[in-house]
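Review this fold:
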Amino acid sequence: MAAAGSRAGSRSRAWRPAAGHVFVSGYVVLLVAFGLVPTAYALNLAFTDAGGRFAGLANFVRTAQDHRFLAAVGHVGTYLALWLVTLTVLVLALALLVHRLAAAWSRAVLRFVYYVPGALAGASSVLLWLFMLDPSVSPIDGVVRTLWGSTFVAVVAPGHLPWLFTIIAFWTGAGGWIVIMYGALNSIPHEVIEAARVDGAGPLRTALRVQLPMLRKWIVYMLILSSRPAPSSSSSRSSSPRRASASSAPTTRSTSSPTCTPSTRTTSTARPPSRSTC
């Protein structure tokens, strides 16, 4: 009897609402409203035609046959390669630089400066880069004109977008990763670094042979999260095939990347994917 009562009491305690359920309830509501429902809606658009009838894979076949498909895939691949390589090299270099500073106040200031761009709202970042990339008003107009052209239309040409989005993505998303890598460097035992110094290893050799190998799992984690597409991009990719089936002319190549196709020049400064967004 005592054992049965104990089991019944444990079951009642297991099912009793706890404070944790209250805390996560808000997130669950937002996840359903802005994550699961849009995903289900996008899937419905992808597999139905303009009349709402089931279309199978016809929308995707029509999308793949579009003449802009391979160009868009190439732009997305170029962007990912540039973004991931730039992110890995510069984030690790800047994190190691901050970690090498002796003064605590300088480390705090640099971490704050690195993190500020990522804290800006998306709309603010878009407006800022619209201003920076317009040669007529940009404070770095000489650099913009030399690298990409003398007009805004020339600057945001499709061939320039992978490079532009790499710069924008690094500016908005690298700061948080620098802070994370700095924390990971602090987790390395001081005895290990001191032993390397005693063995005659300089700063560069210590970074390459000791610190970076011990950060391998953090680097992989950063690359996985940074290579994810932005939620808005996935929604656009899923919904584009249905829009294509509603018109006689192919208009579907925003399915690979809504930012790297000839039809998106006027929206070239949209927020890129990151750990975010792409």
Summary: The radius of gyration is 25 Å. Residues 230-278 have pLDDT under 50 and may be disordered. The chain is about 70% helix and 0% strand. Residues 69-100 form the longest helix (32 residues).
